[in-house]
Amino acid sequence: MVDIRRISTNRWWNKKNNWCLFIFLSFLFFVRITKGSLYKDFYYLISKPFWPGQFQREVLTKSVEQEFLIRLKQLEKDNKRLRKILSLQRLSDSDSISAIVISRKTGSFWRQIILNKGVKDGVEIGSFVVGPGGLLGRVVNTSLFTSTVKLLTSPESKVGVWVERIQMHGLLVGLGNDYPKVIFYNKDIDIKVGDFVLSSPASTLLPPNIPIGIVQSVDEDLKAKKTANILLLGKPQAIDWVQIIKVEI
Amino acid sequence: MGNYFKKKISYISFLFIPIVYLWDPNWLEFLGVQPYWPLFWLLPWSMIYGSLDGLIIGLFLGLILDSLSLESSFTQIPGLVLCGIWFGKLRISNNIFVGHFRFGLICSIASFFCGLLYFFHILIKYWSDHTNFLYLPSIKNIFAQVFITGLLAPLLCSLLFRLFQKSKGRDKLINFINK
Lengths: 249, 179
Fold this sequence. Notes:
The complex is a heterodimer of chains A (249) and B (179).
Chain A: H1 2-9, H2 16-33, H3 37-47, H4 54-86, E1 90-91, E2 97-105, E3 112-115, E4 128-131, E5 134-142, E6 147-151, E7 158-163, E8 168-173, E9 181-184, E10 196-199, E11 211-218, E12 226-232, E13 241-245, E14 247-248
Chain B: H1 2-7, H2 9-23, H3 37-49, H4 51-68, H5 77-89, H6 96-125, H7 139-178
Helix pairs in contact in B: 2-3, 2-4, 3-4, 3-5, 3-7, 4-5, 5-6, 6-7
């Protein structure tokens, strides 16, 4: 009787340690099968309060911006060097002149602004004027203390432009209202609303790739031309400070 | 000195037209368009001094304003000269209310006429390019200018008219005493 009881207690399934080992091995097997997903999810939950916050994001954004700035400067340098080699129009290396808008005629048919810098400050006829957003116009008249800028919206303004996405040249024509038009002398181009319009690399009046505006709407085809309304990025009716930049030929 | 200024107020105020033209205050615009400032001065002056003086002063005004605006191909002279002649032929109304209303109406018509002439200049200039149809939306400028010019004319023209009339009267009186 005593022997039978001893034998039954000695069976492996009656031992607690064996069961513990079995459970542990099963757990390991489960982890292996699920490729540690249980661990990963658990880690997700416990690490959540310690994730990189807003501050870290700002640091990263700043670093990225700096990286872009360095790359941009490098590209600009390359661009200048290549343009010099090709003898193309380029921006002046000297600093731009900051000026205040002292008079503006941005309504009606007469569209011009007068700036508080003139011949005395080194402003030359033909220099172009940019404001926050992009190109505003060209200096067409100077006096000792002032310079007059013909805006892109003026009915007499005609500027060569370039749509980067489709790589097509067009002619930006001021119409005496706030929305100049681009005329493309090709009916089959694929211009779309939202396309960026820049100054043309082939222009003899302006340096290339200065932002001008965005295509607001595309008109119906007309004979061999296609026209599009442009929303200018620079708003002369609201800008008080501008930059006058010389063009080197 | 004060008397001299009062006597010559019409000529002195003439010198300020280009300044106001350049100033173009934003708070007086309608749909982004300013009133046609020279008409406010030209109307009372021509009504007092007649058509011939209106023609000459219209020409001078046109020359000055053309030199201030950059559009070398378009001119404001024909519009202002014709307005000067027309204004000189108008009679002064005795009724104050009708007088005010007439100033507004006349300036609106004149503004429309000048705007239209300028617009035709643009159309004719670009006729050969076949791009003249593109300029049609800018006709909005004319109507906005007509409205804002007509709105301000009763106030400004009446004021200037009274000033010019007084200075002319004083001028005549001084001449009569001198004789």
